[in-house]
TrEMBL record:
Domain called Pyridine nucleotide-disulphide oxidoreductase dimerisation: residue spans: 354-465
Known EC number: 1.8.1.15
Family recorded in the similarity comment: Belongs to the class-I pyridine nucleotide-disulfide oxidoreductase family.
Keyword Oxidoreductase among record annotations: yes
Cited NCBIfam families: PRK07846.1 (NF005884)
Gene3D superfamilies reported for this sequence: 3.30.390.30, FAD/NAD(P)-binding domain (3.50.50.60)
PROSITE patterns: PYRIDINE_REDOX_1
Keyword terms, alphabetized: Disulfide bond, FAD, Flavoprotein, NAD, Oxidoreductase, Redox-active center
Protein name, as recorded: Mycothione reductase
Annotated FAD/NAD(P)-binding domain residues: 7-328
EC top class named in words: oxidoreductase
SUPFAM superfamilies documented for this protein: FAD/NAD(P)-binding domain (SSF51905), FAD/NAD-linked reductases, dimerisation (C-terminal) domain (SSF55424)
Amino acid sequence: MAETAHYDLVIIGSGSGNSLLTPYWDDKNVASIDGGIFGGTCLNNGCIPTKMFLYPADHAAMTDRLSALGVDMEVTGTDYAAIRDRVFGIIDPISEGGAEYRANGEHTTLYPEYAHFTGPKELTTDSGAVITGDQIVIAAGSRPVLPAEISGLDHPAVHTNVDMMRLSDLPRRTVVLGGGFIASEAAAMFHGLGSEVTQINRSATLLRAFDHDVSQTFTEVAGKAWTVQLAQQVTAVEDGGDDGAAATVVTEGSDGTEYRYPADAVIVAMGRVPNSDTLNLAATDVATHDDDRIVVNDFQQVLDKHGKVIEGIWSLGDINSEYQLKHVSNLEARTVMNNLENPDSMVRSDHRFVPAAVFTQPQVATVGLTEAEAIDQYGADAVAVKKQYYRDTAYGWAMGAEEEFAKVIVSKAGNRILGMHIVGEQAATLIQPILTAMQFDIPADKLARGQYWIHPALTEVVENALLGTVDVPY
Ligand SMILES: Cc1cc2nc3c(=O)[nH]c(=O)nc-3n(C[C@H](O)[C@H](O)[C@H](O)COP(=O)(O)OP(=O)(O)OC[C@H]3O[C@@H](n4cnc5c(N)ncnc54)[C@H](O)[C@@H]3O)c2cc1C
Ligand SMILES: NC(=O)c1ccc[n+]([C@@H]2O[C@H](COP(=O)([O-])OP(=O)(O)OC[C@H]3O[C@@H](n4cnc5c(N)ncnc54)[C@H](O)[C@@H]3O)[C@@H](O)[C@H]2O)c1
């Protein structure tokens, strides 16, 4: 029988879970378990490599916008292999270095394998190592959904975020399935790099969960850059196809019409599910929500089926979170970090104002209530809404902006920002002062007029949006 190794702290998952180890743990024994690539999703096949691909892809896709400004620029090609190798030449050594650091740490032990619970506070790895811990942190993340109703998703031309950035060559035709974050970023990325992209979505707009105007505008702009097929349900991926295609994506329209799309690569981006179902939680008292997320309280302590804290078990990141965002996982990791070290002065995770951005061209950024949600919650007369087009500001003129805008929603009585939604260049950066105001309870009029806004920077879009919702004398 395998001997049991006992640790002060056991961490399942090396994404945000890997950031828990402060000097506090230097004289204690810690086990880090990860069966996937060390460093988790964001580093290896999520946020970071996608943005490293999107940056050159965005620039390569700029020719149309520049021609309207009198610049006749031609992109004669992108070197996919060079871009891929640069990205992973930076990322892979970070992942390898992190794994080595944990494997060789004086007080850390790395188990580079998957593990599941075999007792309330006992784990067994795939090779049979048995591990117990005084404290266990479940940070095992999420994985892509491969809908069972679509046949052929095991075809070699089908990829998810896990491998879509490590292809041997740029596909001539890329068919992207889904209309959310990953699908839209993947479509922008392959389009910018020079692939012929078709994005297929079940609903009538891309980024459907965003403010309606944002979703509508993004869908229109994306549809001008690459092919967007809406209101179609994917039924199958078949082998081979027209013009030497590796595969054919088969869809059905709302009237039952069948459509067929030849593809050299198919990217599936139809949501992500928490990995809790792989952990044999039945051996524990850990409770899960209907969608399999682990149930935690604000301190990130895991709860049992009666809502009681299970002492010594914590969870953070995608496996418990409805947000599935890295900045949320990081905040939750800081909560766990503090609470493990300071049980007498625990802190709560603050999820009141969670922002998100989609790093497409145009970028999208959001925080707080959408216009529809605000009206629903407060009533139409109680909220002031301003949709400020980039094209009505000086920098917008410089850019030749057309559809891009920032929409702010302010409560009239409270003079507080309820939400902001931006579609346009630098949206993820422009939204930051709004996050600051919401987090630190700065009134909308004070944010608008109580500071300088650099002229004629793009931030004047945000300033003017705010000025459209508040009463300021001068
Ligand atoms: C393509 C893509 C782009 C993204 N872009 C952004 C972005 O721009 N901004 C943003 O905020 N968020 C982005 N995200 C989301 C972000 O990556 C995740 O929210 C974040 O990485 C979650 O971190 P985590 O620590 O919860 O999980 P992960 O980083 O996924 O770590 C979980 C780890 O647990 C391991 N594991 C799982 N099961 C077991 C087991 N049984 N035993 C041992 N180990 C196990 C896995 O191998 C994995 O390494 C993106 C995601 C994707 C897929
Ligand atoms: N920039 C970022 O912050 C960023 C980037 C990528 C991913 N992420 C995170 O990763 C999470 C997962 O991303 P995602 O794009 O996979 O999920 P998502 O929830 O954003 O989008 C899922 C898409 O798949 C579609 N879909 C789901 N099931 C389907 C089915 N059976 N048939 C047809 N269509 C179906 C949905 O309609 C939707 O368009 C996001 O929620 C986000 O939090 C963030």
